[in-house]
Specification:
The chain is built from 11 helices and no strands. With about 210 residues, the chain is mainly alpha-helical. The radius of gyration is 18 Å and the shape is elongated. It starts with a helix and ends in a 23-residue tail after the last helix. It binds a DNA duplex (11 and 11 nucleotides) through helix 2, helix 3, helix 6, helix 8 and helix 9.
DNA sequence: AACTCGGGGCA
DNA sequence: TGCCCAGAGTT
């Protein structure tokens, strides 16, 4: 595990401005965009949220939409029946349980319909700057390929990353690993020839 | 732990 | 045409 510092240093130098690829102007908008992002590419989510947030920038306005209205906005995201229902319920809960603002703890965030551990960690790290590592499919895949974690479950990978990455780097590591997974260390055809980590990676095929 | 939801992009 | 995608909820 002594390879952590070197890998983090390379990632930091490679992705100095890495940030979430989801459009948002507020914690609420990031929350909605992240709920929508399940099993869907971020480019399509950004097309949807551009229209949705233009019409309903805040929770109070979005809560006025019916589930049917929401379905019309988000249909191209896939899983639209569940997501529309969850977004409607989440807006309602934000207003009547959390006084209209997005809560800042993982436990409270996970009380919102459609918000699991991964989504909650994304909100904590990106919206509030609270140290958290969202181990989505990208982070999980990259960590395992690099040999940083040998874990079947994302929860195990999250624990290992937290143990070996300094806490002040958690939010950044989250950005780096997700961005690297999207652009280089792709699930299908990883671009190992263009990867700054290929000399350190036991899975690299050059 | 396995199953289901789902339209769109890509091979 | 078949496979896969910034997961979460249910059983």
């Amino acid at each position: 595990m002594t390879r952590f510092p070197e890998i983090l240093q390379i990632l930091a130098a490679t992705y100095p401005t890495a940030q979430t690829a989801l459009n948002h102007d507020s914690p609420f908008q990031l929350l909605i965009a992240t709920i929508l992002s399940a099993q869907c590419t971020d480019e399509r989510i950004n097309i949807i949220t551009r229209k949705l947030f233009s019409a309903c920038p805040t929770v109070l306005e979005m809560d006025q939409l019916s589930i049917s209205d929401l379905e019309d906005y988000i249909r191209s995201a896939g899983l639209w029946q569940t997501k529309a229902k969850n977004i409607k319920a989440t807006c309602h809960k934000l207003i009547y349980t959390f006084e209209g603002s997005v809560p800042k703890t993982r436990e409270e965030l996970m009380l919102l319909p459609g918000v699991g551990r991964k989504t909650a960690n994304v909100i904590l790290a990106n919206a509030f700057g609270i140290p958290a590592i969202a181990v989505d499919t990208h982070v999980h895949r990259v960590s395992n390929r690099l040999g940083l974690a040998t874990a079947k479950k994302p929860e195990q990978t999250e624990i290992i990353l937290m143990q070996h990455i300094p806490e002040q780097l958690w939010a950044k590591a989250h950005h780096w690993l997700i961005y690297h997974g999207r652009k280089i260390c792709k699930a299908r055809r990883p671009l190992c020839n263009n990867c700054p980590l290929n000399k350190l990676c036991p899975s690299a095929t050059l």
